[in-house]
């Protein structure tokens, strides 16, 4: 944590000011679906067996200051990132080398690759892929340089189930609303102004991505009506985040969608003789739909695969003619090993996918140095850095797999590695810590107010639709998310229970 | 309850159909603010001390069939009702005779009248009044006539705090949504069609009424910025109903409003030397607003007046230059005695306010016969009808005061009157029971599903802005509400915990 580049923030509130802000926040969020289902620790299943209760989503009371040029760069570079990851997903040869390195230590990656091979053997029947991506950044101020200008450094690139696009639009609306009713005290309003608060367009823009895929699929081959399928986890507390995309997909694009829990895929869908994916909703006997697009909001974590049946379900979906959001190869392109390979100092890989030098240079500037923990030259250097308490303090150790919650930070790295069998070290990558400027905010979770130091993570959504042959049909930046967490937790997932949805208050820093 | 004029309805649902409908209803309602704060019996204050939890508002699963010509007549006649009640509110002499009859038995009415007299002594400084009215009807099929055509009969006319305008727009949106995703089974869709489901415009239309009043007030006389004041009850479970009006008032009309609990009026507002009402929000030290319009969502029931302080607060507000929604006289015009006097068979009163014979005749058709329980000729007739078990079975006994919960029905009337001192009889009116056709629906409350016979009550909103001199500046019909309750309870208030918000499915009956 470096010194703050931000003005004194947020302002202190009198009891009356806090009360007014909180009351308006609580009512606005429920009135506009900025909500989640309560955690079982808050409301037990026996109290609310049918699940009708909801609570305000965890949000920040104030929009967090964010350097304007960093925000603008994040949005501006998204189309290049979309192209980069679609290029990676099309490069099976290259992905194979990455996957093979991981296969020994990451069973999940190995199984995903097996599915790809199995479908490939049979032959893919869909050459379109949809990506609803999210590139996550932190603001970094180089502690080694005096007067260093803040810049964005990528934390990770999500190629599957990028969440919070539904709630992000709402929270930026809410902060704008709170400003418009003068709920922020006068000493804050030189900083919080309407034109400092960019409205995230993530809801309509991600929904438009699904609609573009739906249209690109073409007409029905099975004579059934067409639909989009949201493949979801069973009980989903973050359901409204997904619902807002569904509602926008229907209201603004006229596209029908259904939600199917991952464990119901095999019972509720089948492939016809042409491998069209046919969905038969259990509630509508005799009525079936042909699926144009499978939108995975499940299946991204090993936890979703309890046994062989789930793997069979994934294979079943991948074999189908439906456009996958994302395809298996795109899913694999999002594994941290790929990010690491691209960001390994002096790596030749970025140039392979981004021939334009200026673009490649611009992308490279957003990478924090990442090292493998293998026995390559960079890997050996990383092992030295990670096992020494002094140097380890500038690094974070991350598992290659998706899904937060298991990062090892700074001084904890050497003892962690000491306990870990060395053969498992390559399952992790070592990343230089991004050093965000000191910042404070107030997080509201279930009515509890937590004030203190926070870290914000800017997520920029991207929509990309491409053919395996290389043609890119659609490519756009699709709004943003700011997730903010207490700076003690050093974890980033709001869903995981540590953070809050936020919006950017742009400042010139 | 007469025989049904409706088709077989609602359709039976398979478990899967019910599940699909319920899941979509539960998610849509929270995602769109069709919500209430949970009752203390569902979520205790100790579990959720800051009040962040919300639950879906009680709604019907299906839109209830409603005769199209009845719906159309209710909407068409609203402007005439607005004129009628604004004329009554302007006729102090006439109101005085009504109030004087009640004063002995209804302390609340007497106190309201005292306030009027006190302000009158000093002189009113505002000649504009705003009414946000709601005229409530039931469908009546005369049991004495074969092949009787259904018609609407007025249950009551609300001149203050007409509620559910905020949620009504949402529930008609929701039923349309459920239809659009084919959540209603095929056997229902000959009845439930998009063009059978009129969208209630109550949110934007009522908000536009407040905005019209705000503009008509003119410019600030105190040099403070202008605002609308929602005077509310302390803890308000139905807060989102009110919030949707506030949000529409701001977003669509650019008008600021504040919520002030009734018990905070004296501490947070003052009158300046010209009796401008100045509101100083506790959260904004040094910032004050001049109130253009007082919108009462409290103060309509004796329960809101714990002691003299509340009466002082009401007087304080009435003395101000702010436009009242409604004024004291308009509030008094809504007492049931007025409805009774108008609806007493062969009454001369309607013609006094509605000189146009055709309009008067049309209004009269919506009245159910209502009798006083005094010693007039009609009153003596009523006493005979009410004390005889045979004839009492076609009647309901209602207190003159506002607020549901105390009606006495049919066979219960004679024993009730027997126990009541005869001097208190004039506090009640006797009304011929409206006989609604048999109808079924499913009510969802806190996830509990109650299926069975129901009674629907159509509420038609009206906006009217007038000068005490007689000029009507604005007059429009402002959308509708359908409230549906189990036909056992014979009570109508959703807030009181017995009913649900519904929408009309128009049928030709």
Largest sheet of chain A: 7 strands, antiparallel
Largest protein-protein interface: A-B, 49 and 49 residues
**Proportion in helices of chain A:** 25-40%
Q: What is the structural class of chain A?
A: alpha+beta
- Overall body shape of chain A: globular
| Average of pLDDT of chain A | 93
Oligomer: homodimer
Topology:
The structure is a homodimer of 509-residue chains.
Chain A: H1 15-31, E1 35-36, E2 53-56, E3 59-60, E4 64-67, H2 68-76, H3 78-90, H4 92-103, H5 107-122, E5 128-140, E6 151-158, H6 165-180, H7 202-216, E7 226-232, H8 239-253, E8 257-261, H9 265-268, E9 269-271, E10 277-279, E11 289-297, H10 308-319, E12 323-325, H11 328-333, H12 336-343, H13 349-353, H14 357-364, E13 370-372, H15 377-387, H16 389-392, E14 395-399, E15 408-409, H17 413-419, E16 428-432, E17 440-445, E18 448-467, E19 472-486, E20 499-502, E21 504-507
Parallel strand pairs in A: 4-21, 7-8, 7-11, 11-12
Antiparallel strand pairs in A: 1-2, 3-17, 5-6, 5-18, 9-10, 10-11, 13-16, 14-15, 14-16, 17-18, 18-19, 19-20
Helix pairs in contact in A: 1-6, 4-5, 5-10, 6-8, 7-8
